[in-house]
Amino acid sequence: MTSDTDNSRPQDRDHQELRLVMLLLALVVGLLITGAAVYLAREHPSLAQPLGVGAAVMSALAAVVGVVARVLRR
Fold first, then answer.
1. Domain map of the chain by residue range?
2. Which of 43, 58, 67, 70 is the most buried (most CB within 10 A)?
3. pLDDT (0 to 100) of residue 58
4. Where are the transmembrane segments (predicted)?
């Protein structure tokens, strides 16, 4: 009787590469948005407080999404 001891399938590797690409893409988009927010805050100081509130909301949403993703993964 033969058993397959290799649990890693080629499909999982493809999905892992896709996850990495999506993570890097999200990181680049996040950095672009952060750069735009910093630029706006420097050029238009009256927007600094609304941008700060927006950043706080975005970070809270990211934390909630992270918790939900971790719960769904288990």
1. 13-73
2. 58
3. 84
4. 20-41, 53-72
